[in-house]
Amino acid sequence: MKIRQSTRSNPLSLSPTLYSNAGMTHALGSPYWRDLFDIVIVQAMKPSFYSNSDRPFRLLNPRSMSQTWRPVSSLERGQIYIQGNVGDFISMTGLPGARVLYFGDHVFSDLADPIMQLGWKTGAIIPELEVYA
Fold first, then answer.
1. Alpha helices in 37-109, H assignment, sequence order
2. pTM of the prediction?
3. How far apart are CA 52 and CA 86, in angstroms?
4. Is pLDDT at 58 greater than 90 in this prediction?
5. Residue 19: helix, strand or coil by DSSP?
6. Helix boundaries (H) for 1-133
7. Which of 34, 47, 51, 111 is the 20 to 30 Å CA partner of 119?
8. Does the keyword Magnesium apply (predicted)?
9. Rounded CA gap, 115 and 51, in Å?
């Protein structure tokens, strides 16, 4: 499965690292799911991710599950980042709002802010619709 051909892909989760890892390993069928993405962000603490510019990104060591206390100044491929804010995400990735497609399963915390504040395109994940498939 090749998610990133001509695009960048960055999962953003409000979940803790262990939960995100278990969920993505199950969903993508591989413990190496992080290799499919450019940047992985966990514990984003949405919706404050969109409004609190005082929370910097910090690097997470996946082996020790410890984070650096020094804020990062760039987001690099293959790394896992914890917390952060949308302003730093946009400035560090250079992605304008019209080029971002964001998927979420909660209308308020996942979809409303990205559309209204950032102009991101959004996709809704609605498990309840499976009964109609």
1. 86-93
2. 0.78
3. 8
4. yes
5. helix
6. 17-28, 86-93, 113
7. 34
8. yes
9. 14
